[in-house]
Amino acid sequence: MITAPQLEIAVLLLGMAILMFEAFATRVDKRVLAFAAIVGLALILIASFFVSPTPSPDRATGLWNFYTADKLSVFFKQFALLTTIFVLIMMIDYAPVVRASFPGTTDGLGEFFSVPIFTCVGLMYLVSAVDFIFIFVSLELVTVSFYVLVSFTRKNPVTLEAGVKYLVLSALSTAFLVYGIAWIFGATGQTNLQRITEALANPNTDHSAALLGVVLVLVALGFKIAAVPFQIWVPDVYQGAPTPVTAYLSVGSKAAGFVVLLRVLRPFVTLPQMQRLLVLIALLTLIYGNLAALPQGNLKRLLAYSSIAHSGYLLIGVVCLDGNAVVFYLAAYFLMTLLSFAVLVIVAQQTGEQISDFDGLAKRSPFLAFAMLIGMVSLAGVPFTAGFLGKFFIFYAAILQRQIALVVIGVITVGCGFYYYLKVVRAMYWQPANKAEDIPISGLSRLAISALIAATIWLGVYPQPILNMLKR
Questions:
Q1: How far apart are CA 334 and CA 329, in angstroms?
Q2: Which residues are CB-contacts of 58 (< 8 A; sequence separation ≥ 6)?
Q3: Do the beta carbons of residue 212 and residue 183 sit within 8 Å?
Q4: What dihedral do alpha carbons 344, 349, 350, 356 form, nearest 10°?
Q5: Which residues face 2 on adjacent strands?
Q6: In angstroms, rounded to a whole number, what is the distance separating the alpha carbons of residues 314 and 465?
Q7: How far does Cα 43 stand from its chain's mean position?
Q8: Could you state, in order of their start, the residue ranges of all structural domains in the chain?
């Protein structure tokens, strides 16, 4: 059997090995490093199915006071590994853009392939963290890695602007997180989430100070999950960052943020003030994300506002304390978002990122058009796709908890989603093509996109494997 911390150590060693090889093997095609990283991460993904169980919280000692390897955390480690593998495949397709930003040399391409591996380490640690100190360290590892990735093609002024905005607002969110942890520690004398729960059960604990602390922590996590009113950085950063990095931000970072949010809120679920605050944030996020996406003409910007809207749907599950619905929705979101970005990476290099650049794509590349069609209809929530069942479970949880306002607003905003997602479908199938030549697709990208299409439809028709895993 394999212990869970060995998975992170293996990923870390893989990243260091690829980084060192990139530094000394100057004459090797740097795309080889991406293939090596994909193979290494795939082997670690297989090993993650043989992880030994974690000690129970009452018997935890040493590292296990900060770290857990329960079924939820192991699932999201696999989630982070899979996300990183697909992002690396996108980065291989995106390599010409990176090389163009470093004219006359291939320097930088190796780092572009290795930094996501270190981001993966941070995500894997983050989903296992059960202590505020460890949560802070893991979150900073993820954030610092994204500082580098977002502004990697730094000679592009739009990318540089995105990097600066992400740096400043992430630093601000870190300040909120540290200040909130300080308040919680001052009120309870603990940083371990299990012990904080026990301390809050003590009537002598200052619940007002602890509540202020968790609100500050919620503000910090609100930045990470792109919840209103902390979403101001999302559109510009998503549009300016390299497209594979945008996909990584949208999927990996959001998933880890919601896992941490579920863990952090667990000691405070009995406080009615927290419930009302979460309902308000969920409503604002749903309304803003969907309405702001309606007039967008840039596909990356549209997907940015779409990401905010999906945070609203996920927050409904958090409000209802239905972890299973949140996990299923995240799994569906993983498939349909990566599918959309995988097509965008290929098409944008030939035409552009505007929705009008997808005009007539069905004639130029029927395979890519069909893939984007599946991604868009799943994001909209059309039946027989993963997105439909994700929204169904979220709304079902809200109905059981009698959160009528969330259900009503959620259903109305789903209707808005149909409008702006199907704009892309109309451009691909009903508009005349701007160009006549075909769009080339590599064999690896075709395989990855085919797998995402099949999984999106399969999870929408037969979700039982994921549901069985959640029951366990």
A1: 8
A2: none
A3: yes
A4: 50
A5: 51
A6: 21
A7: 22
A8: 272-472
| 248, two tokens | 């990584």
Q: Output the six-digit token pair for 290.
A: 């969907």
Per-residue model confidence as pLDDT tens digits over 197-246: 888 888 887 878 888 888 999 999 988 888 888 888 888 889 888 889 99
Per the CB < 8 A criterion, the answer to whether 151 and 163 are in contact is yes
Residue 139's Cβ-count burial label (10 Å; 0-12, 13-18, 19+) is buried
Length of the chain: 472
Q: Which residue type is seen at 35?
A: F
The whole-angstrom separation of Cα 21 and Cα 16 is 9
Nearest Cα to 281, choosing from 199, 223, 234, 339? 223
Predicted TM-score of the model (pTM):
0.90
Structure tokens at 437: 């030549």
Are the C-beta atoms of residues 226 and 279 closer than 8 Å to each other?
no
| CA triple 456-462-465, angle to 5 deg | 95
The answer to whether 10 and 47 are in contact (CB under 8 A) is yes
Tell me the C-alpha distance between 205 and 199, whole Å: 7
First to last CA, the chain: 19
